[in-house]
Amino acid sequence: MTTVKLLDDAEAEAIPAVKAVFDDIRAVRKSDFVNNFWRGLANDPALLRRTWEGLKAVMMAEGALDPLVREMIYIAVSTANGCTYCVHSHTAAAKAKGMTDAQHGELLAVIGLAGQTNHLVTAMQIPVDPEFDAGRR
Amino acid sequence: MTTVKLLDDAEAEAIPAVKAVFDDIRAVRKSDFVNNFWRGLANDPALLRRTWEGLKAVMMAEGALDPLVREMIYIAVSTANGCTYCVHSHTAAAKAKGMTDAQHGELLAVIGLAGQTNHLVTAMQIPVDPEFDAGRR
Amino acid sequence: MTTVKLLDDAEAEAIPAVKAVFDDIRAVRKSDFVNNFWRGLANDPALLRRTWEGLKAVMMAEGALDPLVREMIYIAVSTANGCTYCVHSHTAAAKAKGMTDAQHGELLAVIGLAGQTNHLVTAMQIPVDPEFDAGRR
Amino acid sequence: MTTVKLLDDAEAEAIPAVKAVFDDIRAVRKSDFVNNFWRGLANDPALLRRTWEGLKAVMMAEGALDPLVREMIYIAVSTANGCTYCVHSHTAAAKAKGMTDAQHGELLAVIGLAGQTNHLVTAMQIPVDPEFDAGRR
Amino acid sequence: MTTVKLLDDAEAEAIPAVKAVFDDIRAVRKSDFVNNFWRGLANDPALLRRTWEGLKAVMMAEGALDPLVREMIYIAVSTANGCTYCVHSHTAAAKAKGMTDAQHGELLAVIGLAGQTNHLVTAMQIPVDPEFDAGRR
Amino acid sequence: MTTVKLLDDAEAEAIPAVKAVFDDIRAVRKSDFVNNFWRGLANDPALLRRTWEGLKAVMMAEGALDPLVREMIYIAVSTANGCTYCVHSHTAAAKAKGMTDAQHGELLAVIGLAGQTNHLVTAMQIPVDPEFDAGRR
């Protein structure tokens, strides 16, 4: 059950602004598969385009971080935000980019530890040590 | 303002179970600096010890993930959880481990994008595509 | 699967304090439909009554905000809190109050943008500009 | 810095609906101290009254849970929600109701453990065991 | 204390890609004031530009939702996410766009009610009523 | 659908480090039932062992808080974090430890109230009263 309609291929083809994005998704990913997230966003073609352009710029462009590292960061945020769909889709993406079981296990361990210490810090209301000030660097 | 007392060095020295952990923190980190988080946890020596042992096992042991990558994952979780102290302390740790400004910028971009798409997915209640099923791999 | 029993109509009828609230829900909404939320709360008649009275006061009374705007604010909070049921029930309510597809698309866009900038701000730990101080107004 | 004005005693006295609630807060708590939360809510006398009535019903009425236990549950929720003010005010309330240092330490340990396992479960997307179904009881 | 440097006007002027965005912010807003959020993002000119373009598209373009309504939705998300800076900046923006005290009070009441019912629903794990299915509409 | 494999008994038996923990879970709980959480963690035997040791230390050791109170605190955190599995498993655990319907109803009421006031406080950005300072005690 969704709160918006998920556009199937025929419906997407019928809207040029949606078709253009779906074509680009397929070309960039070299796959015919367009996952449900984009089919939901397709109800608002401008939002669809902006979101896809943002994703390409952040997750696919050449950069200083390895693409697999970016996926693991994505999983970390999605977990803390409790986003089931995002945890699944980005874990699948990380595995497709070569994440090993050992790396996955360590990712889970870091996420769990951060969850624990985040809660401990907040419950104790620990003040930031002045030594952490980035301005000093 | 905290909800627990932050133990200073004299108070920590006076409790053997706390002194042992503080000594280990200083030895492992090769630094005299013990940050406020540990000074708050020191009110409960068993919790202090367990938390420090957990941190060593997850963040400092040899493993499949680069220590800097682990710090960036930690920052990602801490940001989504809104933990000011943790964002500061682990950003400082990441910088100490060599995070460049370009890497930091990309980390922020991924965190921001994940925050955006997490919200979009939840508002649309997108169902998980069966293609993401880990069981198929 | 729930953690409490959902009271059916016969069970609700049998508890006068629950029956009174269910009758009022049906009368106020001019509909026989009582959704699952109230059937769960009915296990604690006092909590049921207080919650329903709160909802009537906030969402149904005459006021300065349009009822549809109130529903959109509700959806925004529920999304950020990751509450699947609440996103569904209040999106349905917003549609019943006339939310158009264009309005829904813009609502999603604002929610997504806020999610993104919330994360960016927290990751950078931006200090509040003194210009934003409400006390100055 | 706040987003609303905090009403001082003179301003509160000048609004009968606010004065009535402030008088009741002082009478019920047997203290002249009215904390900032109520001074902010006082900008909307109806919201102030409803919130205070809700607090009295949930936190102060006779019931099945010890008042100190209720405060600890309140701290747990407030920590997970990252509410600095609420963590401080309810930790102070719990101490006023007799929370010992040992109890506080255990409360922190449970909150931290829950934070950790919540994150682990979400990252692994563990399905609920049918054995947990409340309907079976 | 921030985790990135906040660029002052001289530093921003020295980077053409940053200067271009700051000039546009000032032109669009008809004000010389550039708030700290943009000064932090300026460390990554591409992220700065994308974020500003996103904000213009979502918050400033003609559309189906009143600009004040969009600000109130923004405040709702920012509150649920616990983003202090965002609550302050968008409350200031809402007031600048004409939000009255009565509207602010109702906004707070809806946010608070949603926070309450979100938690109740999650604690009870209420299943979504089939009547809420958008696909039926 | 999960992001990791859930190890069945045969798979768990084949890994000595996993078998040892599963045996201990069964012995400590005096039950043959090993719930899915541990079957997912079993992919990383070290994480499995650390998490189980943490749980025993926090939830099962003699201490200052009643075991049922600890479960209720766990439910409170899990609810605020939106962890479906954790809400179910710890509500089942609380019922197994004797939580009555009346206690459950009050737990829900406190969780809901805290959710409401957490949001109200954050939206108003209420400053902490100096009277709450733990340092004064």
From TrEMBL, chains A, B, C, D, E, F:
InterPro entries in the cross-refs: AhpD-like, AhpD_core, CMD-like
GO molecular function, one term: peroxiredoxin activity
Ranges for domain Carboxymuconolactone decarboxylase-like: 49-126
Record Pfam families: CMD
Domain of life: Bacteria
Recorded coiled-coil stretches: none
NCBIfam families with a match to the protein in the record: ahpD_dom (TIGR00778)
Protein name (record): Carboxymuconolactone decarboxylase-like domain-containing protein
Organism: Rhizobium freirei PRF 81
